[in-house]
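User: Predict the complex.
Assistant: Input components as received:
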Amino acid sequence: MKTPLTRASPRPPDYGRPPDAPTDEHGSAAVPAARVLPVAALLRRGIILLGPPLALLAALLLLWQWYASQPDIDAQFLPTPLAVWSAFIAQRDLLWHHTLVTLNETLVGFFWALVAGIACGVAIDFSPWMRRALYPLLVTSQTIPIITLAPLLVYWFGFGLTSKAIVVTLVCFFAIVVALADGLRAADPELLKLYRSFGAGRLRIFWSVRLPGALPQLFTGIRIAITYSVVGAIFGEYVGASEGLGFYMQLKLHSFATASVIAAILVTAALSIALFLLTALIERLALPWYYLHGRQAGA
Amino acid sequence: MAGRDSIAPATASTGVPLLDVRGVTMRYRTPEGALTALADISLTVARGEFVALVGPSGCGKSTLLAILAGLEQPSEGTVALAGDPQARRLGRAGYMPQRDLLLPWRTALGNAIAGLEVKGVARGEAQQRARALFADFGLAGFERSYPPLLSGGMRQRVAFARTVLAGDDLLLLDEPFGALDALTRASLQRWLLDIWGRLSKTCLLVTHDVDEALLLADRVYLLSARPGHVRLERRVPLERPRTREMLARADLLALKAELLAALDEQQERSLAGGRI
């Protein structure tokens, strides 16, 4: 028999209905059409959500600024936030160039992780034999630290895009496969029975029931993968590259330009966050039904 | 929307019954040995007839319905659809489980046409047929609503619309109102009673609610505790259109008492058997 990929899979969201819903002639309540959150409400929620972390961040920056400006602290050893900002402004064209290089590696690698991940996830779901064959290999592959693999990849594929993209693919692939395979398995057996009673074949059930039902979980995997992806690219660059944020950081570190290194770190973080938000946005657009009531019990 | 017309007593129609079940037995192999879920069940449902199947918990009612829908094959016996025991049953009957099982990513209308879609009916035509039903089902205006925004009663009506559209003539309802609260259930029973005459379908309803069976059905089969077999068969002596008040008639009360007593006896046996 099949063995589960992980011990627990996220339960589908709990679809309750609003207690104040109007009542129709059969004594049951209903809401006429799908509601969309207006922009103003989104903005207000954004402030509520972002206010506290921003305040804490400001406090930490002030503390850092105060500490780093003490006379006995070497500016090269620990630059002040303002110095980091100056470095960022001074180097912004160079940083932008390296960011684009890193972004390109990330996107290429992520794209292939997505293609391979979806292919493997579907293969695992379609054939128990494939599940038994692929699964142990997949898990084993995750026990190999990428740090040991990256130099080899650079050795094999050169200093260019390919070696970095492969590192990103390896880093992202697993989360996507597991999420999709788990999501496909989680399909409600009663629902499958219902579709069989319609006379539906395996392929129809896959397209109409299993795949759409697995999308929320697939997106969870994608969100996890995208946060790893930039780190993967930087990592590849650290090992051997001629451009990219990782390369830039290493270069600046060797010349003790600490402020520039920190500026590059912050750019890396911004890049990761931007990619994460982009995926979240795509998810919302692709799965409007999943967010009808907020995600009460989801992922 | 009062019940306009009553259908002719279906059994009076000539020819073969739409559904003819003969000697159906179902055995499962379990780790503790063979388990007989159904033992030699024979029953018929005539075209246009509404038949209820009542039985204690665990008597194999749902198994029987799954067999009739073609989801499972009986260990012994035959199931003939319109006189043909060889007929492939999947895709022929409208099968409705207890839970509404609506796809949350589809609108109410999109869910209703699910069965038609599988059968290859063009989307436009399927939607047109579904819209026509929605008006009659009190769902007009909710075509584009997603299931999470619908009440339990409305979701069940969407599921029922899907069942009606998916089934050629025969509807197999597996406790369709079982998961609802008492008020919603009563209102849906009234509603089903109301639209039944206009649907011109044939229906086999599984329920453990004797009142529901008497209110809705032309005939009632009572199944025994496991292994399930037909214990009683009774005609419901009620004309259509029906109202709930008719259940208070003396002959109906006597029938209800008889069915309840038989059901109680079987439920006891089922409990004594220790496996539900």
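Residues 83-291 of chain A form a domain with the MetI-like fold fold (CATH 1.10.3720.10).
Let me know if you want any component modeled separately.
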